[in-house]
Amino acid sequence: MNPAVAARVGQLATQAEHRRAIAEFRARHAADQQACVNALLLQAIAALADLLGAPRKPGPGDITQRGNSRQARATRQHHTSSPQSGINPAVPAKPC
């Protein structure tokens, strides 16, 4: 094979490999961004559910009897005000 042709074939192969690497990076980056958006949406939905007082499934530590005692009210308030989604307003959200 002519040396000039062989050099051009090598150059084209290198360019094609570079294009594939760029496409793979862009696809991975887009998937990472989508995962981040999905996680943020789930956090927003959970925060809205907490704010709107959506019913939640009773946990193992919940009080099963309804009472008007101070401890029962405090426990219910603690369970409804604790962030189910892991959102803590005092800690800034980790950027994606």
Give a short summary of the structure.
Helix content is 65%, strand content 0%. It has helices at 3-52, 70-81.
What order do the helices and strands come in, and which of them pair?
Blueprint: H1 3-52, H2 70-81
Protein architecture, described:
- This protein is an all-alpha fold.
- The chain has one domain (3-80).
- It is built from two helices and no strands.
- It has helices at residues 3-52, 70-81.
- It is rod-shaped, with a radius of gyration of 27 Å.
Main features:
96 residues; mainly alpha; 2 helices
Show unreliable segments. Answer: 78-85
Radius of gyration: 27 Å
**Share of residues in helices:** 55-70%
Count of alpha/pi helices: 2
Q: How confident is the prediction overall: mean pLDDT?
A: 78
* Total strand segments: 0
Number of structural domains = 1
Question: Could you state the order of secondary-structure elements as H and E?
Answer: HH
**What is the first-to-last residue Cα distance?**
51 Å
Q: How much of the residues is beta strand, in percent?
A: under 5%
Global shape: rod-shaped
Derived structural class: mainly alpha
Describe the biggest sheet?
Answer: none
